[in-house]
Amino acid sequence: MATNNSGLTGQAPVTTTSTPDLEAATPTQPFPPKDPSLITWTDPKDPENPKNWPTRTKWQTTWTVSLFVFISPVSSSMIAPAMDRLGESLHMHTEMEIYLSVAIFILAYAIGPVFFGPASELYGRVRLLQVSNAWYTAWNLGCGFASTKAQFFAFRFLAGVGGSAPLAIGGGAISDMWSAEERGKAMGVYTLGPLLGPVIGPIAGGFIAEYSTWRWVFWSTSAAAVGVQVIGFFYLRESHPGTLLRRRRDELVRQTGNGNLHLDEEPEPLPKKLLHAFSRPVILFTTQPIIFCMALYMAYLFGTTYMMFVTFPEIWTVVYGETPSIGGLNYLSIAIGSFIGLFMTLKLIDPIYRRLKEKNNGTATPEFRMPALLIGSVLATIGLFWYAWSIGRTHWIMPNIGAGIYTAGTIACLQGMQTYIVDSYQTYAASALAACAILRSLAGFGFPLFAPYMYNALGYGWGTSLLAFVTVAVGWTAPALFWVFGARLRAVSRFAAG
């Protein structure tokens, strides 16, 4: 679900999806600079340049960022097995209100990235990650003490705003450190957080719902967020090139007293950055067919996944008669599918990209990411049909297998779409991913709300089959169309790379 969130971020997430605005973030002047007062990297192998960090440091930072990305999606769906008890305790009288307890957290994912992305360019990735995580922890803790549904919805939304920051910043941090050839593995790890978070959360939430109170769902996730904060203090390293160069400039000014030292491009004031953060994603979404199609499909997969998350408890407790704790264990099928999707990405899809590049005389094109999208879409379709027609008709293991196949396909799709966008819009990749993140967050908010009405009208079989038909119509045709026409679309775009 970048999630996305992700990944989906919640998956986001596969979150993202989502992601900071990097348009003016990476000065790349010739080495050495002609202007003696210009502060830039000293040479192509400057050790302070994040792309020149040792591989161990890159992976250490990547895994730490992924922890921050992971903790918020855990909270996003952990309440799912305890929704009924939550609704009873806080006097929620309709299904819409009960499902809103999950969905309102995801709605905040559409708002937070617009602020956190630009702010990370002024204050750095690390500071924003730590501040936003502290914000999330405080409001998430407040959810556990809420005494009315109004308090709960307000606290839950504010916690989601803080939880959205890692999904907005994480993709940019990955892009800071890894080259295009290496980015596939790192993006796979990053995407796994927003997808696994909503899986692990309900497993723990099922046991909490059965043996404790729903309030411990929030108290326990807040404790975990404190642990991630501590890890971040030791292992999180600033990777934003613009921030690192500003620090270098400020240190040299302090040492030499030379006030003429400057960067190639000074950062814009925050209000102007926020204006760009609002306008650029809208412009890209409305003028770029590549981003328009990828954002819609990413949002669709994200929304479908969250619909699956919130309807899982009813399937296992009502249809199959399991207890909330045992029913929560069925989320393991989504976790297993996530690992299969990541393994498939690392062992199959990345090598395909490299082989296509070799056959093209060592020149890579963004369209070489399309096999990942096609493979993932086929798997997602198979998984949805399998899941749809096995619920209540076969042994409980069969819907789990279908959910796992769907999740594996979703991971591959998100991997292909996010890397395709980054490769196609390198300078404007952050704004492009921000457009995708906002749309998929709105889908993650909306899909669970209409899920009970759709399944009441069509049943699990035809209701989920309807979702599968859309993956056929979009996911099977889009890769072929972009394989043929993608280069032409980029050639006439003033935003695309090159």
TrEMBL record:
Annotated transmembrane regions: 98-116, 153-175, 187-208, 214-236, 282-309, 329-349, 370-389, 395-416, 428-450, 462-485
Chief subcellular location: membrane
Database matches in SUPFAM superfamilies: MFS general substrate transporter
Keyword terms of this UniProt record: Membrane, Transmembrane, Transmembrane helix
Annotated segments matching region Disordered: 1-55
Biased composition (Polar residues): 1-20
Membrane topology: Multi-pass membrane protein
Annotated localization: Membrane
Every Major facilitator superfamily (MFS) profile domain range: 61-491
Pfam families the record matches: MFS_1 (PF07690)
Protein's recorded name: MFS transporter
Organismal lineage: Eukaryota, Fungi, Dikarya, Ascomycota, Pezizomycotina
